[in-house]
Write a structure and sequence with these properties.
5-stranded antiparallel beta sheet; alpha+beta; Alpha-Beta Plaits; branched-chain amino acid biosynthesis; 4-stranded antiparallel beta sheet
């Protein structure tokens, strides 16, 4: 195999850019990683992704066991099956990592995300924004004479659809939590 040639002024490429376009198709995977809740662990996990050119589409981190000092990192990433397997294997080798679960392949799971969406508008646009919010079960958490802030929870696709409908009505700003996911069932 010949070494990768990088021309002067060219930036380094990710592993995705080096793939043959006729090779395997990329898939989105949700990974749940149980780690020690200590300084530097998140940086090491994220460093693994950035150092190898893997992209993170969503990242959520929170302590889940206060007495055991454990945190759960939920990562949504995209890659070929080989790349996903490589990511899981490399995550499992990081010392403070206790468990790595690929919720996408381990069975049914539940994914939810929360978003705050600011929409400004007057007249008919304001009425339409409220009507759509009702359809999507979004809550108004702040209101002024010229704007609303909606809180919406659901799948990332639901939030994307709501945001797409709000754009022509005056979407100004959006904050998203990232995906939180759990496997379904008793295990």
């Amino acid at each position: 195999m010949s070494p990768l040639k990088i021309e002067k002024g060219a930036s380094s490429q990710s592993v995705y850019a080096l793939r043959d376009p006729n090779s395997e198709v990329e898939e989105k995977h949700t990974l749940a990683v149980l780690v020690e809740n200590e300084p530097g662990v998140l940086a090491r996990v994220i460093g693994l992704f950035s150092g190898r050119g893997y992209n993170i589409e969503s990242l959520t981190v929170a302590e889940v066991d206060h007495t055991g000092h454990l945190s759960r990192i939920t990562i949504v990433t995209k890659g070929t099956p080989a790349v996903i397997e490589q990511i899981k294997a490399q995550l499992g080798r990081i010392v403070p990592v206790h468990e790595v679960h690929d919720l996408t392949v381990e069975g049914p799971s539940v994914e939810r995300e929360l978003a705050l969406i600011k929409v400004s508008g007057e007249g008919d646009k304001r009425v339409e924004a409220l009507r759509l919010a009702d359809i999507f079960r979004a809550n108004v958490v702040d209101s002024t004479l010229g704007s609303f802030v909606f809180e919406i929870t659901g799948t990332p696709e639901k939030i994307d659809a709501f945001a797409d409908l709000m754009r022509p009505l005056g979407l100004r700003e959006m904050a998203r939590t990232g995906v939180a996911a759990l496997a379904r069932g008793s295990e």
